[in-house]
Each structure stands twice: as C-alpha cells, then as structure tokens.
Amino acid sequence: MIDTHCHLDAPEFGNHQAELIQAAHKAGVHQMVIPAVEVGNFAAVQRLCAQYPSCFPAYGIHPMYVARAQSDDLAVLRHYLTTHRPVAVGEIGLDGFVASPTLAEQESLFIVQLKLAREFDLPVLLHIRHAQDQVLKHLRQIKVRGGIAHAFNGSRQQAEEFIKLGFKLGFGGAMTYPRALQIRQLAATLPLDSLVLETDAPDIPPVFLTRSEPNQPAFLPKIAQALADLRGMTLAELTLATRENTLNVLPYLNR
Length: 255
Description:
Elements (H helix, E strand, L loop, with lengths): L1 E2 L13 H11 L3 E5 L6 H10 L3 E5 L13 H11 L4 E8 L7 H18 L3 E6 L2 H10 L5 E3 L6 H9 L2 E5 L9 H9 L5 E3 L22 H12 L3 H15 L6
Parallel strand pairs: 1-2, 2-3, 3-4, 4-5, 5-6, 6-7, 7-8
Helix pairs in contact: 3-4, 8-9
C-alpha cells in the first residue's frame, strides 16, 4: 500500500519516525508521501526522506501558512524542486474555512506554485476546503500534469471535474465514519481508477481511534478495508487498484 499523504515530520510524532515507519511496513504500507507545508519544514522533510527510502518528499507552501511566507520563500521552493527530486509540489491549495489569510492572499501564492509545478512538470498535492470551485478555476487556467485532491470532500460534479483535469481523489479517515454520508457515497461510486488512499497522519483520525490518539500510516490498511467494504471488493483488489492509480499520478514513486 501507498500512503499518499502523511506528515511524519509533525511535532506530534516527536522523534519516533523510525518506529512509525517500521509499524507501517509491518502493516503492509511500504511507501509514504511526506508533503511539506512551509519553507520552515522543507529541510526536515528532506532529511526524513533521505534517511528512510520508503518516504518520498513533496515541497510546497500550504494555504494556512501563507501569512508566514517570506519574500524569498518561492526562491527556496524553486531550489528544492530543482535539487531534491520531489514526487510533487505540495501541499498547496486554498482554504475558504479560515478567515486569515484571506482567499485573495492565498490565491496569489497558489497561482505561482501552480506555475512552478507546470514548469517542472510535477503533479500537485492539493489542500482544498470550502474552495473547490476556486481551485478548479485556477487549474483550468494553469494546466499541470494532474495530482491528488487530498482529503476530497466536494460534490460529485466537482469530483468529476477534478478527474477530467487528470487528478486522483484522496480518501482517508473521514470516509470511515458512518455519518459521513456524502464522502462515503462518493468513495463507493466514483470510478475506481480515480481513487487513492491516504491517512493525513497525524490528522483526520479514523473512526476506530480516539480523538487524542494521532493517526499514523500503519492504520492505512484498516482505512482501506473500509473503502473496500463500501465498494464490495476484497482488500487485495482495492490495494492493487489504488497502488496502480497512485503510481500513474505520482510517477516518481517508481524511482
């Protein structure tokens, strides 16, 4: 299995990355994508991925960190994209749920990062909250080589638009809650070749965790089983399909 989105450098994990990665391998999760969220953690993500061959970096400035960005951050991002062989640009996007930074402030940095992804011919890892249509607008204007709409929670029509633009849709812990009717309906009925698996560790805990317990990549098989059950598939069938989907959209994982 491939966890397409986990933040193993997060402070919640302290210095226990080795144990977390070992637990993931034991559970059958053998590749993990580690997206950065701001220039301040680029080096930590790079070191982690250099130390553990099953971890693969993505570099970008998350919309909720836009206010902390400095004038030379885009130059630093360009340097990392040039020299550190990421699998994607990310985590980038728009967040309409927060009041600050405003969407206008987020959009200016999002547009530049999309242009960098296009320049380097890299897919993007998208954070989208209450801003699906705005993100789609920019993706139509700035053509990139696809990517993943992480923790997808839009409508079916929006899902279909992302798929048309070459994106896969990430499903994780939110899908495991029986009351998450819309997300579960999408997970059950969208084309199988549009789905990828993720944990967003340490965030988005699945239903079987307590709110105080951080999520981790080792829980991905139980999340995957929930998706397999929704689709009436075996876990093995789902694992094979979502792995192929992930490698199609993030080809540098094959390195």
